[in-house]
Design goal:
By secondary structure, this protein is α+β, with helices and mostly antiparallel strands. It is built from three helices and eight strands; from the N terminus they run αβββαββαβββ. A hairpin with a 2-residue loop joins β7 and β8.
């Protein structure tokens, strides 16, 4: 139950859903359901991921859903250079990353029984890039790219997933 509470807390805090005040205005083809996936980590903790059933929605021709990932040769070269220079390499994770980006897909759900009482049984618009929607990866990438650019990072011309910035002590890479 703690895992579900954590996941729901993140969805509520990120304001992923918004009640539709006039359900008659919504095309029923864009109403989908949710999928809950439980995983048990090696340390024994439970994690639940709530995702939209994007496969139940009509195809969205308006958006190209491509979201880039770092090329393997770029990652290998980056790690090799860091090892040669004795540079500290740090890895991190963004918790519920997609939920920080606005949704690019039009999608709705009916709040299931495990949702907070005010949302149960109501038609809700998905406002954020919920896992499972076709364009969520692209929405997160665009959100991250804009945030990095605003913080002074520059995108590599060789690999769009490699970022750099100059500092008084040299260059930093991300």
């Amino acid at each position: 139950l703690g895992a579900l509470d954590r996941e729901m807390g993140g969805l509520v805090d990120s304001q992923v859903f918004e009640e539709v005040l006039d359900p008659d205005t919504v095309d029923p083809d864009y109403i989908t359901s949710l999928l809950e996936r439980l995983t048990v980590k090696q340390c024994g903790t439970h994690k639940i991921r709530i995702a939209a059933r994007g496969d139940q929605l009509p195809p969205n021709d308006e958006f190209e859903n491509f979201a880039p990932v770092i090329r393997l040769d770029t990652l290998r070269l980056f790690l090799a250079i860091a090892a040669i220079r004795g540079t500290y390499v740090w890895a991190g994770e963004v918790s519920q990353a997609y939920l920080r980006a606005p949704a690019m897909d039009e999608a709705y759900i009916v709040g299931p029984g495990y949702f907070p009482v005010p949302m149960r049984g109501k038609l809700l618009r998905i406002k954020k890039a919920l896992y499972g929607l076709g364009a969520s990866g692209k929405a997160w990438y665009q959100f991250l790219r804009n945030a990095l650019q605003n913080l002074g990072w520059h995108q590599s011309a060789v690999d769009e997933c490699l970022w750099w910035r100059s500092t008084p002590t040299g260059r930093e890479f991300l």
